[in-house]
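Following up on my earlier thread - several people asked me to post the actual chain instead of describing it. Fair enough. Here it is, all 141 residues.
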Amino acid sequence: MLKIESIQNGIVIDHIPAGKGMDIYKLLELDSQKQSIALLQSVRSEKYGCKDLIKIEGFTEPERLEVLGYLNDGVTLIVIRDGKVVKKYHPVPPRTLKNVIKCKNPRCITSTEANCEHIFKLSSSGKYRCIYCNQEASLLR
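Reply from S.P.:
Thanks for posting it. Predicted structure:
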């Protein structure tokens, strides 16, 4: 049995669908972080059968995790301080996504101009739309 130490101060990203942990790891650019990070894949779970899990010691940027509300509403974020759980919540979809997804419209300015940021806003219908051409984003879930 693999044993991973509990973290004292940081965050745990729990209930990641099996096989999606590495996608979240890359999206959050955790490879460029200086903190201690544990990515566990295909962990047995009574409730979910199988899941992925990410533990980040010393993580202090919870606003970066807002994008998880777009990716999967079943993910649980657990904030740990002094070895104790201080907050447990599901991220909500952010109002704006910046450089998370790319516009698929070939006529969009983001397709023709270099260094143009891909920005999507959450519409009243609950879908993300490109701010430049109003193209609806395809879901990653």
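Helices lie at 21-27, 68-71, 109-112. That should answer part of your original question.
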